[in-house]
Design a protein that fits this description.
The structure holds two protein chains of two kinds. By secondary structure, chain A is mainly α. Chain A has one domain: Helix Hairpins. Chain A has three helices and no strands. The longest helix of chain A is centred in the C-terminal third of the chain and has 33 residues. In chain B, helix 3 packs antiparallel against helix 18, helix 13 packs across helix 19 and helix 15 runs antiparallel to helix 17. By secondary structure, chain B is mainly alpha-helical. Chain B has a domain of about 210 residues. In chain B, about 75% of the residues lie in helices and about 0% in strands. The radius of gyration of chain B is 21 Å and the shape is globular. Classes of the chains: A mainly alpha, B mainly alpha. At the A-B interface, helix 2 and helix 3 of A face helix 5 and helix 6 of B.
């Protein structure tokens, strides 16, 4: 499971970097999105994986680590906001292009 | 000590208020009052921290390594105070700008940027630092693209992309550190990083250095900067030029003092610093546009600040921090003058601007003082900043880099003289009106360099105290976590 996810992170980073180096803006945006998803998965991995119990008082150990999930949640929200901004910026570039004929 | 959170809370609340109140005058009122309150709160924080030591807030009452903390040491408090003061002065320049069509959400963006910046300076948690960096950056994206044309939007896209990649690396580094140490609290990290597996810590520190290096615009990661700072309206560029890269410099200082302390000169960091100085100043010499010249000098000056950090002694850090604070004031003042000229004359190229000194003698003074200070001419603060750095460099036997830094300051003087002779001397052009408030804004920032030049010892005592507390990360950790 760890290896699989590690490969997935590598794939996301590789694909993201490749897309980022393309000329077209939309591809670059998708590339940035893949990069940030790769980073999010990486954060998830940092807490360790495996079948564990929910981190509640009274549950038997081993319990899972809740912090990486909290971190990812924040990172996803930030990534979402920035992505929305980037797409709006792209739309504006497009709209300005049409204005200027 | 909840004062530690005030420099973040005040601009957040003021920004939200500015977003909802109707009417231009009312927004301006709230905005200026909010900025003033931020300045007062952060100045109060500096005084408090100087007297009592690190101010810590445990949010929600959770004990330190588990909950979120704000920990204001002297370094963070000083940065927050100067950032707020410069933000207030720059806001006045917007008030003076004769092109009145400000976006209604401009004030909200401005305050949000200050909140993110102060949060980055005062937080005691690495992940929180990431979050506040993003708050700051999102606000900066917004301010950068205000009223942009298509070409500007494309340039801004590059800026956003570069910063987004840097943030991604930052996040990966945070995850690596969490996997290695099991904590993202800065104080906890500084205590336990030594025991953590090195194969995780080393790449994490490297990635953090790269991420912060992009924001600080060090060699070879500075190429985004001249493009990005040539874009926005003058006062926005002035504030970005003064403050944004310094957030990266601050983060580098935090990384290599509190989290992963260096002792003695760090060869690769010295090399990066010298290359940054040299490439920045050479790039500036090749430019013909005032704002681009000044932007590339930011890069060169960041080299000096990193040089102070790289020397790895408490004296050098004190000199480096003095340099940071001095440079924020000087660079913002220079860019505010260039903004005033650009908005009055509609151009910033040297050829178009000859003879400004006849038409606006006081503007010449507002430019000459920080320009001389930037090159390190006494009695202004730049002289002291360089004296402290040179002395610290010679103490640890780094004569070569010190000589390079002196050569670079000579080239800086040449470049400032080029602007001055190009733009301020010569036959007078047709005079355009420059509003008084523009002078007030530039003078309010330039005043810093004069006072710190004549009374340099006051500020140096502060930065020396800040550097001493950086050299003793144990006391920072004790203040945050409680002695163990």
């Amino acid at each position: 499971m760890n290896l699989l996810l590690a490969l997935l992170v590598g794939l996301l980073f590789g694909a993201g970097t490749w897309l980022l180096l393309c000329q077209r803006m939309l591809r670059q945006v998708v590339g940035l999105a893949l990069l940030s998803h790769g980073a999010n998965l990486f954060v998830l991995l940092s807490g360790g994986l495996g079948a564990r119990h929910a981190p509640l008082v009274g549950n038997p150990s081993p319990q899972s680590d809740p912090l990486p999930q909290a971190l990812i949640l924040t990172a996803i929200v930030i990534g979402f906001g920035v992505m929305a901004f980037l797409l709006a910026l792209g739309y504006r570039m497009h709209a300005l292009e049409e204005d200027q004929g | 000590m909840s004062l530690a959170f005030a420099p973040v809370a005040i601009p957040l609340v003021a920004g939200l208020l500015c977003a909802v109140v109707p009417g231009r005058r009312l927004r301006w009122g709230f905005s200026v009052a909010g900025m003033g309150a931020s300045v007062a709160a952060s100045a109060g924080l500096v005084a408090w921290v100087h007297r009592h030591g690190v101010a810590v807030v445990h949010f929600g009452g959770w004990p330190a390594p588990y909950g979120i903390v704000f920990a204001a040491d002297l370094l963070g408090a000083l940065m927050a105070a100067i950032g707020s003061w410069v933000a207030l002065c720059t806001l006045l320049a917007f008030l003076a700008d004769p092109h009145p069509r400000l976006d209604p959400f401009f004030h909200a963006g401005w305050h949000l940027m200050l909140a993110g910046m102060n949060g980055a300076f005062l937080t005691g948690d690495l992940f929180n630092l990431y979050v506040f960096f993003e708050v700051l950056l999102v606000a900066s994206y917004f301010l950068l693209t205000l009223g942009s044309t298509r070409r500007e939007a494309r340039e801004a896209f590059g800026y956003v992309a570069v910063n987004l990649v840097a943030s991604t690396l930052f996040l990966v580094a945070v995850a690596l550190l969490y996997a290695a140490v099991g904590s993202v609290n800065l104080a906890d990290l500084s205590r336990r990083l030594g025991e953590a597996p090195r194969e995780l810590v080393r790449p994490a520190v490297f990635l953090l250095a790269v991420a912060f290096g992009v924001k600080a615009a060090v060699f070879p990661l500075y190429l985004w900067l001249p493009q990005a700072y040539a874009l926005p309206r003058g006062p926005v560029a002035a504030y970005f030029g003064g403050m944004l890269t310094k957030v990266g410099v601050y983060a580098l200082y935090r990384l290599f003092t509190t989290v992963q302390p260096t002792r003695g000169p760090e060869p690769w960091l010295v090399a990066v610093a010298v290359l940054t100085m040299v490439f920045g100043v050479l790039g500036a010499l090749a430019q013909e546009d005032v704002r681009r010249i000044l932007s590339l000098h930011i890069v060169s000056q960041v080299g000096y600040m990193v040089f102070g950090l790289a020397l790895g002694t408490s004296e050098a850090w004190a000199g480096g921090l003095f340099y940071v604070l001095h440079h924020i004031g000087v660079k913002t003042a220079l860019l505010l003058v260039s903004a005033a000229v650009e908005s009055a004359y509609g151009s910033g190229t040297l050829r178009a601007l000859a003879g400004l000194g006849h038409a606006h003698p006081w503007l010449g003074v507002c430019f000459a003082v920080p320009a001389l200070s930037l090159a390190g001419i006494p009695p202004f603060s730049g002289f002291w900043a360089k004296v402290f750095l040179v002395r610290a460099g010679l103490e640890v036997g780094e004569a070569g880099p010190v000589a390079a830094s002196l050569l670079v300051s000579l080239l800086t003087l040449l470049s400032m003289a080029k602007i001055f002779t190009g733009a301020f001397w010569g036959t007078a052009p047709e005079r355009a009106e420059i509003p008084r408030l523009h002078y007030a804004a530039a003078a309010g920032v330039a005043l810093l360099t004069v006072t710190w030049g004549l009374g340099g010892s006051v500020l140096f005592d502060l930065t020396a105290a800040a550097a001493r507390s950086l050299a003793d990360p144990g006391s920072y950790a004790d203040a945050v976590l409680g002695g163990r």
